[in-house]
Amino acid sequence: MNFLLLERTELDGGDKAILRGRRARHLREVLRAEVGQRLRAGVIDGEIGEARVDALTATEAVVHVSLTRAAPPVHDVLLLAVPRPKVLLRMLAHAAALGFSEEILFRSWRVDKSWLGSRAMRPDAQREHLLLGLEQAGRTAVPKVTFFDRFKPMVEDALPSRDLPTQRFVAHPAARTRTSAIGAFRGPFALAVGPDGGVLPYEVDALAAAGFHAVSMCEHALRTETALAALWGQLDLLRANCSEAGS
User: Fold this and answer.
1) What's the per-residue H, E or C state across 124-179?
2) N or C: which end of the chain has fewer CB within 10 A?
3) Residues 206 and 139 in one domain
4) Claim to verify: residue 117 and residue 233 sit in the same structural domain
5) Domain of 166: which CATH number?
6) Is residue 133 domain-shared with residue 154, that is, in the same domain?
7) Range of 40's domain?
8) Which residues pair with 5 in a beta bridge?
């Protein structure tokens, strides 16, 4: 972490903040920060800029914060079948780092019911890992996390009323359309990723009825973490190619 992510309440009403706990230790022990050093910084759900280390002790750090520009907007939406608890927390962090504005968790047929009662489903645990992802990427917008414990009501009742991006994709190893054949597109996208083993054909069809196009990257099923990173990378490249072509 060479990006300091601050709660707005940590600012003293001006431009000074006092850091304690994990972030102070990271400054001291990992970054080996020194008084006068400048680091990238931002305020949760707010602006970005830099922070100057003004004081550093064994228990806290005092920084002077200068917020100079708005954070880049984020609009992509992730639909994620709840994976195993440890994997879920990692994926929440990954999705925050990639710039998803919303992470919709849902229970598909292959989701073990016992996972839904784990600590990973608690909002405080999820927020902790979302912030870690934002720190890693230098972002400030905390994704909104929602959960649907039943697949059919989510697809048939909830999704139609949501303002999802027009471009919608569902990862499916058996899909005939490869991501390389999608073609360049503009704007944000919604991406649905199932559990290890993938979503069932019925679930693919239900998502297709909601406007999600089934796509695959290769002939083999990938673990959810790998699939998320690879799919986002390919879709973002297609989007970037369209933007460059139109510039």
Assistant:
1) HHHHHHHHHHHHHHCCCCCCEEEEECCHHHHHHHHHHHCCCCCEEEEECCCCCCEH
2) C
3) yes
4) yes
5) 3.40.1280.10
6) yes
7) 3-69
8) 42
The tens place of each residue's pLDDT in the chain, 247 residues long, gives 578 899 888 887 779 999 888 888 888 887 788 999 999 999 999 999 999 999 999 889 999 999 999 999 999 999 999 999 999 999 999 999 999 999 999 999 999 999 999 999 999 999 999 999 999 999 999 999 999 999 999 999 999 999 999 999 999 888 888 887 888 889 999 999 998 878 899 999 999 999 999 998 876 677 899 999 999 999 999 999 876 655 4
Structure tokens at 172: 């499916």
Residues 62 and 80 in one domain: no
Cβ(103)–Cβ(144) under 8 Å?
yes
Which of 19, 35, 69 is at the close of a domain?
69
Strands 38-43 and 48-56: antiparallel
The Cβ of residue 51 has, within 10 Å, a number of other Cβ atoms equal to: 27
- Of 130, 123, 144, the closest CA to residue 98 belongs to 130
pTM, to two decimals? 0.91
